[in-house]
Predict the 3D structure of the following.
Amino acid sequence: MTTLNSRVPEGPIKDKWTIYKDKINLVNPANKRNIDIIVVGTGLAGGSAAATLAELGYNVKAFAYQDSPRRAHSIAAQGGINAAKNYMGDGDSNYRLFYDTVKGGDYRSREANVHRLAEVSGAIIDQCVAQGVPFARDYGGLLDNRSFGGVLVSRTFYAKGQTGQQLLLGCYSAMNRQIARGKIEMFNRHEMLDVVKVDGKARGIIARDLVTGEIERHSAHAVVIATGGYGNVYFLSTNAMGSNATAAWKVHKKGAFFANPCFTQIHPTCIPRSGDYQSKLTLMSESLRNDGRIWVPAKIEDAKAIQQGKLKPTEIAEEDRDYYLERRYPAFGNLVPRDVASRAAKERCDAGFGVNATGEAVYLDFAAAIQRYGSEKAKIQGLHNPSKEEITKLGEAVIEAKYGNLFQMYEKIVDENPYKTPMMIYPATHYTMGGVWVDYNLMTTVPGLYCIGEANFSDHGANRLGASALMQGLADGYFVLPYTIGDYLADDIRTGKISTDSPEFDAAEKEIKDKLEFFINNKGTHSVDYYHKKLGNVMWNKVGMARNAKGLTEAIEEIREIREDFWKNVKVPGSLNELNPELEKAGRVADFLELGELFAKDALHREESCGGHFREEHVTEDGEAKRDDANFAYVAAWEYTGKPSEAILHKEQLEFKDIELKTRSYK
Amino acid sequence: MNLTLKIWRQKGPQEKGQMVEYKVTDISEHMSFLEMMDVLNESLVAKNEVPIAFDHDCREGICGMCSLHINGEAHGPDRGITTCQLHMRTFKDGDTIYIEPWRAKAFPVIKDLIVDRTAFERIQQAGGYISVNTSGNTQDANAIPISKRNADLSMDAAACIGCGACVASCKNSSAMLFVSAKVSQFALLPQGKIEAADRVRNMVKQMDEEGFGNCTNTGACEVECPKGISLENIARMNREYLKASII
């Protein structure tokens, strides 16, 4: 078994990044003009990287499958972005953010990367404010913060419930400035279908113009993958409909190791599913847990009555409610990390206390917060002996100011007024911590091929804390990659333009064309969605919130069967040379069908429970996850050898020099 | 519920389009509008027909990709939401629903219900940004206090999702609400003031070149905007434009 070289620089953890930046090779401005970089994906990571690399003087080609970079799914992030600014004076620091992230990730992330993330977090906020991102402010005109799960400070910056949107529009505007200058060539409605390697280095991609169907060759001196996570392997997730793993999976098949696929985050607060036709799940921001209290009925007969529609939640007396997070985790209460909150919800629902007609939901209740805020407001306004109605009205106004858009979204979907009756929520797949393995430079195991943002595995270990995805995407794109990629490209200043007229491009293009033709000509019996839903079912039931060896072994077999059936019987209508959404989906689902198997294989091999990966065989006496640091304190990086089942495991041993490995407790 | 759908089908930008009738049955009131379209498309695939192409992505009302004109209204009959957030409970059993793409000269149809909105991209590229490079050494985020009122107004303008409903709803196919939202976001912030005059001039120039119509203050855009972008932004842009013209 090879040991992976993570290329973490020497020195004390606080100085690594500074020393690294002082010593790397730089490319002079005149030479940057002769170097091309491809960036695939234009969310927070890709968008910020594309803009920054173009500002530096490189020629950037950026690719998005949507009709504009502004539509990448980073836009849907609601709650906020973390930064260790300590504007609240509540004891925050880079070290604390680093510590919280490593602990929150259940000690399965690389210390040096996480520390660097914490170090640059403050600069992200400075940069975004300079770009005109309208973060929330208090009456003194300074930036406001709120709390997220798994931490004891307020370090989350936000722009109403649309933080991801505003940050993305920030890097989109920076991109637009560079597109106008001609430094970014933007390819909208284009999808990368493969990476091209020349002499072992990533030198370009094959992309399909989704409007004309034309297959295009694009060359560059380096390729950056920033295409997000693989949550849609579950079919139902909070990801966008088009979110896919094709770019990440294709680079994996070309030699990039894929790390920790089983570390997937199931987010505790999503709107429960309502029927078989459901196409996606909608997240309710974690910020709601600042004020909402989570509960289920304490008595099983009440739960049954609710499930049958005979009882309303507002009719259940306070003493008959089980605020199970507050009961089990008094120190963090409703603000425990996501994995803990999700599992606790599942535990109650499995025990029969769920509240939807399906029994798969718990309540998120704002009644107490409305009363608390209402009384506070009444005092501020000098109202003496306010009536309960007055207090409720004032309190609802405060809640509306904080979460209005989320409440509106909920009401539109569920058709219930969450100001008057508690929200129903249930966990759903949301984020993937696993992804393409990268070293400290964010380079994959293929030279010249980089992977940033959610698509890589590096910073969140086995569980991501809230408001850290936006931080990582922007850290990678604005402040990390622009340094590390320069160090690599310094050797390429004499290479000259990379030709697309080479056997490597020919071969990659032919393979793509053959596959697309197969889909169109197969004329099978089942639609692409039929297979995607089948895969999603297996993933959710057997590789979901709780996993065991038997279920995982079955899942591997079942996924293989679905895949074989797919390649025999899939039906894709329409033709190649046109806008053809079914054809796009076919390629993506084909890749999910392979990734799903590796996912299950990884979950089967990891004989411990940690973070988002919960193995029923590995629990403590009180039902908490039981980690095995002696045997599994490593990153599992898989090498593709022709079949997902035959992937070879490489281990990157994780060393914790600055943080003591201990059992994660939120009690 | 059972519904009759009349849907615009058009093979390509140069082809002639037409309304085509489809029937859907057993539609649940809890379905979203686009899930109803998914059900229809699955049935078309089963019959070896080419499914209806429509833009969509996040399906939670924020990406701005979905863009249907439903019964003559952008994003359908409900208010304050996008098509993907519209639910079938808004309709009744037996209804006939007309589904068309955005209609505007500056938004040519690509296929069926999908239109080309890259005109919006070019307007943003003309000046929808603050010229600041990434360095890690910009001043501290709290160095310039911004009044909560202006920060909130700026955020309200920035909430625009760039879907194009304003253009589709306007009898003149004007893009003033969209452009003014971006101009306002920056004009309200101290960081944006330095380039304010150039920004508004360049963005308006590009808007005119793209073939959008003029604004005659009918206010249809504000009514149909899924994000409640206010007409006040247009007034603010007009002031900014006037200011920029006399300096």
Observations:
- Chain A touches chain B through 81 residues (CB under 8 Å).
